Amino acid sequence: MNDKYLGWLLHIGGGLLVILMLLSIQLMAPDFYSTMYRLTASGDLDGLADYIASFGFYAVGLSIFLIAFVNAIGLPSIPFLTVNGIIFGLIPGILISWVGEVIGIEISFRLTRTLLRKQAQKVISRSKMLEKLDSYSCIRTVMMGRAIPYAPNVVVTAFSALSHISYRDHFIANVLGKFPAVLVEVWLGHDLLRIQEHWGRLIVLVAIVAFIYVIIWWRKRYIKKKRPYCSKESS
């Protein structure tokens, strides 16, 4: 069996596994999807946190699955990241959210690359502008894209999947880049939901994040001119 058929077999198997998990959730909690939709659509974050926490020990796996699933299909995972600090505590909530984000993004990246890679390579080869953009597809650029809090994951995933970055390099950039973004999103969400208790810490966090990204912006503007940002990589 060659790599192409093995890849398709793994994707089909993964898809069937996800469907099985979705059906299992429906069987165990028939009102799960309607309740999740109602709470998420209404922006009732306290209600969402209470509902996920009601699953007890299974809440950890459920949270990881939900974050991975919405990332895999290109939907925002912010509501789940926001409440995880409340449900599990700040540090465990950050780690649980980070695992879910990494898994979901990797699934989305591999699915997008499998379905659209050949078509994308043809388009890129015909456009000098796209070829220049593709030359920036390295660990550093993808990692910086992943590290921006509240940035749509689907945009960076699409760029990565249609570029020449390797699976290994994307995984490294994903693992390293998503951690600071998730840290800010979970921490900020936790303190916003409990702002009366943590307003001082929230101000400090916002100031630190703003300072860091000003430094990154300055470095990118003034140092990038002195040397190439990254070299073109093949997958």
From TrEMBL:
This is TVP38/TMEM64 family membrane protein. Keywords: Cell membrane, Membrane, Transmembrane, Transmembrane helix. PANTHER family: GOLGI APPARATUS MEMBRANE PROTEIN TVP38-RELATED. Residues 75-190 form the VTT domain. It comes from the Bacteria. Pfam families: VTT_dom. The keyword Transmembrane applies. The keyword Transmembrane applies. The chain crosses the membrane at residues 6-27, 48-74, 86-109, 150-167, 199-218. Coiled coil: none annotated.
